TrEMBL record:
It holds the Pfam family Chor_lyase. Keywords: Cytoplasm, Lyase, Pyruvate, Ubiquinone biosynthesis. This is Chorismate lyase. One of its GO terms (cellular component) is cytosol. The lineage of its organism: Bacteria, Pseudomonadati, Pseudomonadota, Betaproteobacteria, Nitrosomonadales. One of its GO terms (molecular function) is chorismate lyase activity.
């Protein structure tokens, strides 16, 4: 599936998917209770030199958003060294508070059962047969790029 400049969806879902600010902060405003659970942190695979961090952002103990951060391993020792200290905190604590960081792009697409991310989320038990919207953004700090992919889980829209 192709990445889109704007999602073909309307209403409440559209406002979440196109949120320009922190999704974690919006969850706090709408549901009060937000928790970040780190699922995985480390090398993307044995063949890659990318570091990834995968989290589930929950509200009222329900999984709302899956987020995967990806940077070059070498950049963990320079521009993105702050990632190593995040722990259970939201990435928003870095992205929206550091004036040296800016977003390049924000793209959207549907994620269906053929997608590797879909299969990952299904294997973790966060989805069953649903179609998901995901978005991808590129962030820059000191010339180094961070990729962020966010999946909007069904519980977010079933409140």
């Amino acid at each position: 599936m192709s990445w889109l400049g704007s999602p073909a969806i309307k209403g409440h879902e559209f406002s979440w998917i196109t949120e320009e600010g922190s999704l974690t902060e919006r969850l706090k405003k709408e549901f009060n209770d937000v928790k970040v659970d780190v699922i995985y942190e480390g090398l993307a695979s044995e063949k890659e030199t990318d570091y990834i961090r995968e989290v589930i952002i929950k509200s009222c103990d329900k999984p709302m958003i899956f987020a995967q951060t990806r940077v070059k391993m070498i950049d963990l020792d320079s521009a993105w060294s702050c990632l190593k200290e995040l722990g259970q905190q939201s990435l928003a604590n870095i992205l929206f508070k550091d004036p040296k960081i800016f977003r390049h792009s924000l793209l959207y697409r549907l994620c269906d059962s053929d997608d590797i991310l879909y299969r990952r989320l299904k294997s973790l038990g966060y989805i069953h047969e649903e179609i998901l919207w995901i978005r991808k953004s590129k962030w820059e700090k000191d010339g180094k790029i961070l990729s962020l992919t966010e999946a909007f889980l069904p519980k977010l829209f079933n409140q």
